[in-house]
Amino acid sequence: MFLTGIRMLSLGIVGLPNVGKSTLFNALTKSKQADAQNYPFCTIEPNIGVVSVPDSRLQRIAAVSASEKIVPTAIEFVDIAGLVKGASEGEGLGNKFLSHIREVDAIVQVVRAFTDSNVTHVGGAVNPAEDAGVINLELVLADWQTVDKRLENTKKKAKGAVDKAVKAEIELLEKLFAHLESGKPARELGYTDDERMVLRVLHLLTAKPMLYVVNTDEGGKASVSLDAPHVEISAKLEAELADLSEEDAKQYLKELGMEETGLDKLIVAGYDLLGLVTFFTSGKPETRAWTVTRGTSAPLAAGVIHTDFIKGFVKADVTNWEDFVACNGWNGVKEKGKLQLEGKEYVVEDGDVMYFHIAG
What we know:
Elements: E1 9-14, H1 21-29, E2 47-52, H2 56-65, E3 70-71, E4 74-79, H3 94-101, E5 106-112, H4 128-158, H5 164-181, H6 193-202, E6 210-215, E7 230-233, H7 235-242, H8 246-255, H9 262-274, E8 276-282, E9 287-293, H10 298-305, H11 308-312, E10 313-320, H12 321-326, H13 330-335, E11 340-342, E12 352-358
Parallel strand pairs: 1-4, 1-5, 3-9, 5-6, 6-7
Antiparallel strand pairs: 2-4, 8-9, 10-11, 10-12
Helix pairs in contact: 1-7, 4-5
């Protein structure tokens, strides 16, 4: 996956009803657009919120360049209505909700670990691992149906005269069918590059990267065993922080003995999950952050700024952000030998400050 400045990273928030999804969404986006009432299916259409990615490096880089504008990178959160057991068969409003999940880059599954007798739990008792199992099974079943239908249609089209590509697709689909039928997500299978091309077309839910948000009591810790990376966040606390000014929120966190908000933790975990890095461009007009996949070459990174820059790329001035700040900007890093002149083979690293030289 290559993320460009044109297409924003999108994380879909899913989970059972009443686990705190909409409360978390509202807190993360500092909005009240998601209904967070205490009943199933209060979120019917997905709510979408765009959040600036917190990055303290931006302000320090911009101060050196005396930039007139600071532009952080952004991330899109999609609050998808609560799924229930049987969603893959259309229970609740399942089919519609599952279709919304297909459009996001990664899944953030919220599981409930908080206790509140006033908030009904659809399963009758708080059990994060059990909740996760219900959601994961529904996603697997939905994918199993997708693969079954595709396999049936592909075999019909083949009609005995199977070419190499069609045969390879059938073999992949049969492998996926058996894997999903055993209750395992598609992301746990290994794939060749050719198989990944077919996989993209299928838009399987369980092929997407996933992490859990364990919604804890305020200041609480949860002891849970889950099958994917997870972060612990109190949606209730995040909602309280969202109503405070930036300074008051920092002071409140300090009083609680916490160094980062739930948004900070979630974004760091999301970047790690998707293998993303941030590089910067900086000058008098603006200092801006850009997001690319780890392993991205310098020309493709330039293409994030403008697609024409890929073809016109000549070279790039590159320095680490800490050197940029310590040496007081571009002139300083040049004078102190901290500036590298890189060509098309250079791979962008997190924290690079870059200036692209473009032909034409």
